[in-house]
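I have been asked to look over a protein record a colleague put together. Alongside the sequence sits a line of tokens, each denoting a local backbone shape. I have pasted the whole thing underneath without changing anything:
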Amino acid sequence: MSSHDSALLDLVEDLTKDVAQPPAGALPALWPTLEKLHLTGVGTSEALGGSGGTVADLVTLCRALAARSVSSPLAEAASANWMLGSADRSLTGLSTVALRAEASPGSELLRAQAVPWARHADHLIVVYGAATGHVDLRAPSVTVTPGVNLAGDPRDEVTFPESELTYLPTPGPGSLAHRLFLLKAAELTGAIAGAYELTRSHVSTREQFGKPLIALTAVANGLAEMKVALLQSTCALERATCIEDTGHIDPAIPDPAVVIARIVAARAATTVARRAHQLHGAIGITHEYPLHTFTTRLWAWRDELGSEHELASHLGRLALASGEHAVWDVLTA
């Protein structure tokens, strides 16, 4: 770990001390501080109106916040600001993103479902067909219907007339999906790490039959399975982040390594959430104990932006599109 990464982790640790979980649908208490520090501009160059820093810095922040049991709009806001900066647009207020808008049944309006944090946002960057556009969520003709995911994070429905959609020239929908896949993998990996550390502490200090739970072979094996899942997700994430930062990608489509990182993180999330509750027993399902702040997010986030099956099918299509001789390189990226 570099000193720069350590500084970012120390910053997150300081910001998240004694931060309580917000009510369902609400922003975390530290969000104004994240905005004041201009962290929503990390990963976008200063020339494009951002705060500078690399995509790896943004990945570190998203992962660290999730590991501290904080859910925030950082990934969506940073991705939206990057899209706006790349299109030479500058907007004030919170921006969020949606990878799909479609015709709303029975009306002439367009609809984007499960939009993260839309009720708190001023702007929406949305993919419609083969193009990406901007919607002013404060416009009178735009309707935001509140909803939440399993973890209580806002996932709202946004309906709007196509006339409210201002198309952005660059980059395209593939680039937005690429970055969101990477940041969602980072958040999942962070939550996996948080669940693992909480479980490791529990089985190391809780005693049964006069000895710590971890002394039992079945418990030690379960914890080892969680650690392996965490390492797999971490390695896939770091590989994808390295490729993203070196710029060796096709800007039109998600890089295979990023899709793989997202798939591995989703699979690891399932394993870790299951094992964490098995090793905690009854205390793990109580509201007072913090395990649910990790596992409900793992269950909710693993299927966002596409299920594991859908992403695996997408990876297969990427491999096939690369030609017969490149299939092995794509699948092992």
